[in-house]
Amino acid sequence: MNYSNFSKNVLNWYNLNKRDLPWRYKGNSKKDPYKVWVSEIMLQQTTVTAVIPYYNKFIKRWPNIKKLSSTNIEDVLDFWSGLGYYRRARNLHLTAGIINNEFNGVFPNKESEIKNLPGIGEYTSAAIRAIAFNKNDTVVDSNIERIMARVFYLKDPINKIKKKIKEYAKMLTPNRKNGDYIQALMDIGSMICLPKNPLCESCPIIKFCQAKKSSSENIIPIKIKKKIKPIRKGSVYLIISSDNKVLLKRREDNGILPGMLEFPSYGWSKDGSEEIDKKILSIDDFKRKKGSVSHQFSHFNLLLTVYEKKEFNVNDINGMWIDKKDLENLGLPTLMKKVFNHVNI
Ligand code: SF4
Asked: Does residue 144 line the site of ligand 1, with CB under 6 A?
């Protein structure tokens, strides 16, 4: 098979059909590596639809590296509430500081420099270099992975063919317009070469696709069975003062939901070793709420038993007492929003 027109077909399709995404440059607007980087970090583990409103608000609030590096990490973490994978927010803030201090606020374009920045691995580095600097790095995300597996009819389970996919993707990477090319493949993957029932009749690369020729587009790539996640259990305490304030604390900087706000909780870290203020446990008339709150993390599922105490006379328990009516505007992670809703059903 001659693949010389592969990237040309992809780029022609992109010119007419690309998605209008807020981080994409338009017309003659200058590419801004900062925006590409922010979007790539947000898009790790999160869908385009979920990212768009967060991205727009983020760029409005912190339009450049200087602004982001001079803000408090707590503000970035609170902003991130609901997006999940909070380590990304911490790394964005850390990286902004490094670029500001060590690169004079200018986003580096060397692979060795980009890859050394917190939160940027091989994929993100390649994507930033291709999209923002038009370098011809080979970029393989899950959409491109699926397209390569189908075009080259790779019949082994997807986890066994990562290296092969990268080699094929590299072979097809064009020397020019690589940024547009990889964004085009991502668009084809999410609009046409869908995981189930791909829309092959609209596909600009159908003539190269061996899976389609073998009528196997619905079975390639071969999936790997998902592992069953372990279940962890813990307790969370919603303590409301007599003047309607709720007790919150910030989690440790390490571990799950690092640095995020929470209603005091414990018992659900990996080794169950987290501390809780003994004064909370000594409150003797907590009301245990019926049922529990469940939440999925990437590597375990959580069940939290919720305890509520109303009309509490505030004593010297450590934490922040926040007006109940202000909770909605705080950056509570989704898990804690679920806890609050559970109590208020
Ligand atoms: S022809 Fe179908 S299966 Fe092949 S790349 Fe295009 S959409 Fe995917």
From this structure: no
What pTM was estimated for this model as a whole? Answer: 0.81
For residue 62, the CA-to-ligand 1 centroid distance in Å is 39
Q: Is the CB of 220 under 6 A from ligand 1?
A: no
* Domain range 231-343, CATH architecture: Alpha-Beta Complex (3.90)
C-alpha separations of 260 from 7, 15, 254 in Å:
44, 42, 10
Of ligand 1's atoms, which has the minimum distance to the CA of residue 206?
Answer: 1
Output the pLDDT for position 276: 75
Structural domain spans, the chain: 6-213, 231-343
Q: Which fold has domain 6-213?
A: Endonuclease III; domain 1 (1.10.340)
Of the listed ranges 80-89, 172-181, 267-276, 296-305, the least confidently predicted one is: 267-276
Which protein residue's CA is at the shortest distance from atom 4 of ligand 1? 209
Which ranges of the chain would DSSP assign to H, the alpha helix? 6-17, 33-43, 48-61, 65-69, 73-79, 87-102, 111-115, 122-133, 142-151, 162-172, 178-191, 210-213, 278-281, 334-343
Ligand 1: centre distance to CA 170 (Å): 19
Decide whether any atom of ligand 1 lies within 6 Å of the 209 Cβ: yes
